[in-house]
Predict the structure.
Amino acid sequence: MRIGIDLGGTKTELIALDDSGCERHRERIATAAQSYDAIVADIRELVLRAERALGVSATVGVGTPGSLSPATGLLRNSNTVCLNGRPLDRDLSAALAREVRIANDANCFALSEAIDGAGRGAEIVFGVILGTGCGGGIVVRGRLLQGASSIAGEWGHNPLPWPEPSELPGPACYCGRLGCIETFVSGPAVSRDLVAHGGDAVDVQTIAARAAQQQPRELAALERFYSRVSRGLASVINLLDPDAIVLGGGLSQLAGIEVAIRERLPQHVFSDSVRTTILRAVHGDSSGVRGAAWLFPA
């Protein structure tokens, strides 16, 4: 049995999967986001409660925003700030008296969709989260690729490729740079872009609904969004050449997004054909917690 934990800023979710990937147990609680010790204690109790219910012991993987620094072994870049600078994997391992594996939530998403989701059977899968931020993860032959600095897949913090003059120097990013892909293709970025072109301050779902009614500003905003996502993913294909790119996050639900991206890729991919398939996630919001469980492979 494998247990996965999705440690989010507002909720902590547990899932237990058997060897075939079938869900056997699930529980969700509020995250004690202001207290590191409470988070560790809550995860311990979630795991023990699940094991009592199932009558078995399990491996435990945890997905969380941020990642463990290979240099220090401490968590960094988490928006649950009490986790930053703490040895979360070691403290959870001590609390549960077993090895606990931790990975970035985007990596967990990619792993889930590569193991038994939309990318199942593909040799190289690039998983993309398009939501309030812009994350990514790489899975090769069913194994998560984290990299020497544990930043593999962070496509959102590269500059937007092939920028138009109007896109330079680009919006400021929280990482301290200008013009990161994330500042163009996240949900808040698309909303800001519409306002910058004379539209209303509305969310992406409203933009899409108005575009479906042929509203010109919203149509143009979606066109800019699709162009930017396609350019960003074309640079990933040029470097990684994955068999499949799986889209997740709130923006992946936009009608026709996979077709719009696929149509635009040949303009930028350095090949006479684009063999990479563009797919939507199968497991939706559950991809992250399922991927955390799969951090212990078969």
